[in-house]
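Whiteboard transcription, Tuesday session. T.W. wrote the C-alpha cells on the left side:
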C-alpha cells in the first residue's frame, strides 16, 4: 500500500509540476511579447519625434547613418560602448526596415529625404530579470511544489483507503478460507488413506489422495502468505549465516533432483551473514530450488550461486527451461497469476514465487527473473547485516 501511495504522490506531483512549468513558460513568453511590443512603441515614438528626451531611463541609442553607411551616434544610453553601438547600427542597417527585432535589439529604421538613415534601437537585454528576481521566483516555485507535495501526501491517505480496505478484506478472506479448508481437506486425506489400506489398489482413490495433497500444499502456501502479510517488519530478525542455509537446503534437495534426472551444481561463498529470520530464509531457498527442479528440462543442470558484492548478498538460481513470453515473466511474482498455458502443473508456478517476494520484502531485499539462451535465472539481492 505504501507503493500505491508513493505512485499516487509521484503521478500527482509529476502532473502538477508539468502544469506549473507549462504555465511558467507561457507566462514568460506572454510577458516577453508584450514587453517587446511596448518597447517597440517607445522606439517608434522616439523615431517619429526625431530626438530622445533628456534624463530618459530607457536603454536607447539614437544614430544617424550617412550615404556612405557611416554611423554618427547622437545619443547612447545603452550599456554598449560607442564602438559596439556603431557595429550594431551597421548590422541593423543591413537587415533593413522589414523587421523590428534582431537578437536583443528592438529598433526602428527610417530613410530620410537627403538619403541618410535614422536608427533608433533599445537594448532589450538590459531589461532582463535581475538575479534577485530570478531567485525570488525560484523560491516561490520550490515552496509551491513542496506545499503541493505535502497536500498530495496528505490526500493520498484518503485516496488509497478504499483500495486498502479491499486488499485487507481479500487477505482476511484468504486467511479465513485457508483455515476453514484445512480441517476438511485433512479429514478427506486421512479417510482416503484408510480406504487405501483396506481395499485393492484403485486409480480413483490414488487420484483423490494426489489432489488432496496438492490442496494441502496450496492451503499451506496461502497460510504462509497470510502470516507474512501480518508480521511486523524486522521485529524477529537476527544474524543468520546465509551460506550455511544454502548448503543445507541444497543437500536436502540433491536426492530429489537426482530422482528427477537432474543435477544441482553450487558455488556458495563462505560466511555470508545477513540480518533475517532463519525459517523464512530457508523457505525462500526451498521455493527457488523446488521451482528450479520442477521447471528444469529433462537431464538439466541446476546452478546455485551465492556471492557477496559490496554490501549485498547475491543468490542466483538458474536452470534450463522452456522459453516463456515476456508477459509471463513480468507477472511471475504476482499472487494468483495464471498464464494462459499454465493450467497444468508443469507450466504453473503457483504461489511459491509470490511467497518468495513477500519474504524478501520483509528482509528489504528484491528478486528478479531473466531468461537468456534457454536459461531461466532468478536473482535475489539481500542487504548484509
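and on the right, the sequence the group agreed on:
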Amino acid at each position: 500500500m505504501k507503493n500505491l501511495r508513493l505512485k499516487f504522490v509521484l503521478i500527482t506531483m509529476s502532473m502538477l509540476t508539468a502544469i506549473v512549468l507549462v504555465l511558467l513558460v507561457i507566462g514568460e513568453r506572454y510577458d516577453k511579447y508584450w514587453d517587446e511590443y511596448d518597447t517597440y512603441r517607445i522606439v517608434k515614438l522616439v523615431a517619429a519625434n526625431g530626438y530622445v528626451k533628456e534624463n530618459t531611463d530607457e536603454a536607447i541609442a539614437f544614430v544617424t547613418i550617412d550615404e556612405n553607411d557611416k554611423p554618427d551616434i547622437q545619443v547612447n544610453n545603452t550599456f554598449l560602448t560607442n564602438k559596439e553601438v556603431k557595429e550594431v547600427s551597421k548590422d541593423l542597417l543591413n537587415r533593413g526596415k522589414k523587421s523590428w527585432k534582431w537578437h536583443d535589439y528592438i529598433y526602428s529604421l527610417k530613410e530620410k529625404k537627403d538619403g541618410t538613415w535614422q536608427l533608433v534601437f533599445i537594448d532589450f537585454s538590459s531589461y532582463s530579470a535581475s538575479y534577485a528576481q530570478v531567485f525570488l521566483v525560484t523560491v516561490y516555485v520550490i515552496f509551491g511544489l513542496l506545499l503541493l507535495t505535502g497536500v498530495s501526501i496528505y490526500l493520498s491517505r484518503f485516496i488509497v483507503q478504499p483500495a486498502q480496505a479491499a486488499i485487507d478484506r481479500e487477505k482476511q478472506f484468504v486467511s479465513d478460507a485457508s483455515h476453514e479448508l484445512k480441517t476438511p481437506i485433512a479429514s478427506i486425506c486421512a479417510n482416503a488413506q484408510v480406504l487405501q489400506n483396506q481395499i485393492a489398489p484403485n486409480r480413483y482413490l490414488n487420484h483423490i489422495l494426489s489432489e488432496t495433497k496438492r490442496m494441502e500444499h496450496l492451503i499451506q502456501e496461502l497460510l504462509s502468505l497470510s502470516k507474512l502479510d501480518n508480521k511486523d517488519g524486522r521485529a524477529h530478525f537476527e544474524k543468520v549465516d546465509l551460506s550455511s542455509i544454502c548448503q543445507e537446503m541444497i543437500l536436502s534437495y540433491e536426492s530429489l533432483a537426482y530422482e528427477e534426472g537432474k543435477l544441482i551444481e553450487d558455488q556458495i561463498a563462505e560466511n555470508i551473514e545477513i540480518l533475517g529470520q532463519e525459517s523464512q530464509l530457508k523457505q525462500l531457498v526451498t521455493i527457488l530450488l523446488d521451482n528450479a527442479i520442477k521447471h528444469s528440462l529433462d537431464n538439466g543442470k541446476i546452478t546455485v550461486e551465492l556471492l557477496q558484492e559490496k554490501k549485498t548478498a547475491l543468490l542466483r538460481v538458474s536452470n534450463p527451461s522452456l522459453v516463456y513470453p515476456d508477459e509471463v515473466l513480468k507477472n511471475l511474482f504476482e499472487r494468483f497469476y495464471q498464464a494462459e498455458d499454465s493450467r497444468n502443473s508443469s507450466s504453473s508456478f503457483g504461489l511459491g514465487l509470490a511467497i518468495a517476494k513477500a519474504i524478501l520484502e520483509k528482509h528489504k531485499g528484491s528478486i528478479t527473473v531473466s531468461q537468456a539462451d534457454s536459461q531461466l535465472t532468478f536473482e535475489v539481492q539481500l542487504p548484509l547485516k
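Someone added at the bottom: The chain has a mean pLDDT of 83.
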